[in-house]
Design a protein that fits this description.
5 domains; 14 strands; alpha+beta; four-stranded antiparallel beta sheet
Length: about 500
């Protein structure tokens, strides 16, 4: 309002509207209108005191409001205000008013009403968070470019960004997903990139880090809690729906998208990450930051000695999952089956997955540990985890049968080899049955029964069992002295040779 006060001073001195217009303070028509207003208030009288700017503003403001016109969208002001509370955009409001409420005005009227409503509402105030050196870092994911995966098909990438809150130095890595192992691996590589660990990590409420978002009592993912303990940092999740608490990394993600990804081409994910590392050190780290007014690498040189040192031995970062034990005494992770003691069938167990091993826990009690499978469909089984009958069935294979037969004797070995060498039938169960007879009838008797079965050219389980059950192996074999290679007719009871037949009946011809 100081221009109005200067114009009023010149009007009191007798200057005309034309002179005032030439000075550039106010146009002729506006100066004439202001002269009339000042005359009505008595400000032009020489004996009157010069009014203050606040008094001039009050009178001029009233005059302006008197000249305002009624907006064409005023009848729907309450509806527009309700839509504004819901976050509806102005273009959508204008379309809905024209479509459903018979409004025929322009979008400009709707926009002016929105501005006027916002001016009547209290303005949200905020403060800029200040961080000391080594105090905190902020972490976030951002959408990356589409890149060909191992099969050659395009796949969405994600940019993992960790920004030190004091120096603004960044770690950037592009990954395929936002899973727990990826999240933990990015943290490890970020700490190794900085060569130190900040005291606190301000994060969002992503499922890979926070299993239950809450303003006061968030629940941290079990594997991420182990990572925090191993590296010695504190987890500070933002309140739900309040990403402004990590605005530094939010701006950092935008900076990566607009300054690194723009106007660049990449062959694959490895090339993308290689270029990102060079960009962070050569461009992003050396620029003058808009807030700190210094280069991030310059401030990082001051911040790094104050950060927590890396542990001598890197923590074994493992992801935790729950899975049910199937009826076959196995549970599944990433299409690989791992055996579990048969007493735990039907229960849900915790799995701690690392790059090389999978440890199974019942609540907090360790059950067993397996090497991690490398191909889908692989079955990793410990024989002691199976029920006794199943373990015995799987253990009594061909090699076991031959080894047991050699302990009994050569006849048993020969009979078992004959059974297992059948080219048509699989006789493993028959061989197992023969060997089980040793527990019922003793090994020496089984050896004798096998020898008698072989002598009679009947190497079968039923033959051996019949010999043992009838005690025939304990009695002499009546056919032991008969040549097995002799013809059947020579051993027949009523057989006679051809010469005796012709001698007995010389006049009879044989037909």
């Amino acid at each position: 309002m100081f221009q109005y006060r200067q114009v009023l001073a010149r009007l009191r001195e007798g200057d005309s509207e034309r002179v005032i217009a030439r000075s550039g303070l106010m146009g002729r028509e506006k100066a004439a209108a202001f002269r009339a207003l000042a005359h009505a208030q008595g400000w032009l009288a020489p004996e009157s005191a010069m009014p203050e700017e606040s008094a001039i503003a009050a009178i001029v403001g009233q005059a302006r409001r008197a000249r305002t016109t009624v907006s064409s969208v005023t009848p729907w002001r309450s509806l527009v205000a309700a839509w504004l509370d819901q976050g509806v955009q102005g273009q959508a409001m204008h379309a809905a008013l024209c479509r459903d409420h018979g409004y025929t005005g322009s979008y400009s009227s709707v926009h002016r009403l929105i501005v006027a409503i916002r001016k009547t509402r209290p303005t949200d105030t905020t403060i800029r968070l200040h961080f000391e050196p080594a105090e905190a870092a902020q972490v976030d994911f951002g959408a990356g470019p589409m890149m060909p995966d191992a099969s050659g098909s395009p796949h969405r990438t994600w940019a993992f960004v960790m920004t030190l809150a004091f120096s603004r130095h960044q770690y950037v890595e592009f990954v395929w997903d936002q899973s727990v192992p990826t999240w933990l691996g990015c943290h490890r590589r970020a700490f190794e990139w900085f060569g130190a660990v900040p005291g606190r990590l301000i994060i969002d409420n992503a499922k890979c880090a926070i299993t239950k978002a809450c303003y006061t009592d968030p629940v941290v993912q079990r594997a991420y809690a182990e990572c925090a303990l191993g590296y010695g940092f504190k987890i500070d999740p933002c309140p739900p729906h309040d990403p402004q608490k990590k605005g530094i990394v939010e701006s950092g993600v935008k900076y990566v998208k607009r300054n690194f990804l723009a106007l660049r081409s990449f062959r694959d994910l490895a090339d993308l990450n290689a270029q990102a590392r060079l960009w962070v050190m050569d461009e992003a780290g050396r620029r003058v930051h808009g807030t700190t007014r210094q280069a991030p690498l310059t401030l990082f040189a001051l911040e790094r000695p104050l950060m927590r040192a890396l542990p001598v031995i890197a923590p074994d970062l493992g992801a935790w999952h729950k899975a049910s034990v199937h009826r076959d005494c196995h549970l599944q992770f990433e299409r690989v089956l791992y055996s579990v003691p048969f007493a735990l069938v039907g229960q849900r167990l915790w799995m701690r997955i690392t790059d090389t091993a999978i440890a199974l826990y019942r609540d907090y009690e360790h059950v067993c540990t397996h090497r991690r499978g490398t191909r889908a469909g692989e079955r990793i089984t410990v024989a002691d985890h199976l029920p006794p009958h199943a373990a015995a069935f799987l253990a009594h294979d061909r090699e076991w049968c031959l080894a047991q037969a050699r302990l009994i004797g050569p006849a048993c070995t020969q009979l078992i080899e004959h059974l297992l060498s059948d080219k048509i039938l699989e006789r493993l169960r028959a061989a197992q049955g023969v060997l089980r007879l040793a527990a019922q009838f003793t090994a020496p008797r089984l050896e004798g029964a096998c020898a008698r079965a072989l002598a009679h050219d009947s190497p079968f389980y039923r033959t051996v069992k019949t010999i043992l059950a009838g005690g025939h192996d304990l009695r002499p074999d009546p056919g032991a002295g008969i040549d097995p290679n002799a013809g059947y007719g020579q051993r027949a009871r009523f057989a006679r040779d051809a010469q005796s037949l012709f001698t007995a009946q010389p006049g009879r011809l044989l037909h």
